[in-house]
Amino acid sequence: MGAATPGGSAPGGGRLRGVEEAAAKNEGTSRTGTGWRRGTWLFLPGLTLLLALGVRGLVVEPRLIISDSMRPTLVSGDRLLMEKVSYRFHAPSTGDIVVFEPLPEADRRGTLHLEAHIKRVIGLPGQEVRVHEGRVLVDGQPLVEPYMAEAPGYEWGPARVPEDMLFVMGDNRNESSDSHVWGFLPRRNVLGRACLRFWPLGRAGGL
C-alpha cells in the first residue's frame, strides 16, 4: 500500500486535488476564503490551549472556573488562560481579574478551600475603599461597573488599602467571599492575571 511522505504526494494526488478544488468551488469556499477563516477561528482556541499546556508554569496557565462569584463575567465551567508575566514588570491595575492563593482568613471564615481564587481588583495601595448604599466608592468616587451582577446589599468601610495589598471583589457582589469578608489581599499571593476565556467557544475572547 502506498503512503504519502512529508512534502510528497500519494498516487492519484493530482486527480484528488482536482476533485477537492471543484468541490470547494461549488460550495463557494476556498483555503483563503470565508470557510477557511471559520475553520481557523475554531482551531485557534485549541491551539491556544496546547501552547498554554506547553509553557505551563512559565508564561500562561489554563484555569477552570468552578464557582459563580464572578458572574456574569465568568461562570462555572468557563475555561481561561492566566498570564504570569506582566506583574513581574508592573503592579496590578484597577479592573484586572487576578488569580491568587487563598488566605488563611478565608478558610477560618468557612469559605470553600480551593487551590486558587479569582476576583477583580477594586482598590490599590493608598486608596480608600467604601461600600455604601449599593455602590463601591474609591477615594470618594463611585466606580462605573457595567460588569456587576447586582448592587451589593451590604456596607463596608471606609478603609485605606495598605502598602503591598489589594482590595478585590467578585462581580457577583452578594455571592462572593472577597476582601469585604476576609480583608486585603497581599500582592505576593497573586499568581497572575486572567487574560483570555477560550471555552465555551461562543463566549471566547479577552478579559
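the 2nd protein, sequnce then structure:
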Amino acid sequence: MPDAPRHAGALHRVLTIAWREFRSTVLTKGFLFSALAFPLLMVGVSTLLPILMATSIQPMKGAILVDAPASAIDAMRAELDRAANDPVMAIRERVDRGEEPDLDDASAALTPIESPIESIQSDQVEAAKKRVRDGDALALVIIPPASLDAQSKDPTYELFVATKTSPKHTSIVSRSVREAIVRLRVQASGADYQRTMDLLKRPEPNILRLTNDGAEAKERLEGRMLVPGAFMLLMWLTTFTGANYLLTSTIEEKGSKVIEVLLAAVSPMELLAGKILGQLGSTAVMLGMYGMAGLAGLSALAMMDLVPVSSLLLMVAFALTAYLMIASMLTAVGSAVTNLQEAQALVGPVMIVLIVPLMLWLPISENPNGAFAVVCSFVPPISPFIMVLRATGTSEPVPGWQVALSLAVSAASSVGFLWLASRIFRVGILMQGKPPTPRELLRWARYR
C-alpha cells in the first residue's frame, strides 16, 4: 500500500498545476473579453441589425421624370403602386421566376415609396437632367419606343440619378422600369402577362438520397455543406486556441525562470500533465460558449434539426483527442525554445498539417463516404477533424465501425503524441541557448 499515498500526492500536484494553469488563463480580463466578445457580438448584431436597418431606411421622395410612351408611364406607375402596397411583391416574383433575390431587393421592400411620376418630352431631357443633378428630382428615365416592341431582341432604357441617390432607391426605380417593359412586351406579343408569369414559375424539387440500406433520406444541401464546416471550424478554433495558450505560457515560464521554481516542487511529467489538463479546461469553456452561441442562433432560425445530439457528442469526443494531439505538439515546441520568435520555425510545420482539414472541407463535404475521405479519417492528427466533417454532413450515416475505429485511432495517437511530448519536455524544459532543429527534437524523444 505504500504506493497509494505517493500516487495520491502526484495526482494532487497535477490538479494543483492544472488549476493554476486554468486560473491564469480563464480568470483573466483578456480571456474573458476574447472568449465572450465573439458570441456577444453575434447576438448583438443579430438583435440590433433589424432595428438599425428599420431606423436607417429613408423614404423614397422626389419626382421620377420619364421620357417614354404613355403606356410605359402608366405601367411604371402601376409597378410603383404595387411595390408600395405589397413590399415583398418583388422578392416573391423573382423567386417564382427562379431568380435569386439580392440584398437590394430585401432592403427596398422596407422602403416607403412617395415618388410621383412626371411625364416629359424629348426636348426637355437636358432640363430634366439638371433637375436631377440639382436634387429637384429623384431620377430621369428614358425608354425608347423600340424597347416596347415584342420583336425587339435587345430592349434597353436609360436611368439617370444624382450622385447622392441611395442605391436602394435606384434599385426600386430600375426594377419598376424593368417590370413595366417586360409587362408591355408580353402584352404586345398577344400573350396574357399573368399566365406567362405562371408558366415561368420554377418547380421546387423534392430531393431524396437513396441510402445503401434501401431507405430514402431527405437531402439537405445546407446541412451537407455548412453544418459540417461549422462543426469543424468550431473544433479547430477552440482546440488550437487552447493549445496556443499552452505554447505561450510554457515559453513565458521558461524565459522568466518560473519553470525552475515549479520543477523544484513537481516532476517534469506532473508539470506537463497539469499544464495540458488546465488548458483542456479553458478549451472546454470556449467550446461550450461558442457552441451554445451557435445553437442559440440555429434555434432562433428553427434549424435545430440540422444538429442532432449524436453529432454534438461526436464533436466533443473528437475535440478531446484533437486537443491532446495539438497540445502535445505545441507543448513540445514551447519546452524546446526560449521565445516566440524561435518557436515560429518549429510551429510552421505543425500549422501546415493543421491547415489541411480546412483545405479538405469542401471536397470531403461533397463526397463524405468516398475513398479519400475514409482514408483521411484514420490519419492523425487530422483524423478528428475529418471524421467530424463526415459524420455531421451527410444524410447517409457514416458506418459505425468507421466512427469507432477513427475514434480509437485518434485516442491511441493522442497517447503517442503525449508520450513523445513528455520525452521532449523533460529534456528541453531546462535547456537554454540555440533552439533545436526538428531532427534534434526527434533525437531528444529517443533519450533514455
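The first helix runs from residue 3 to 26. The radius of gyration is 32 Å.
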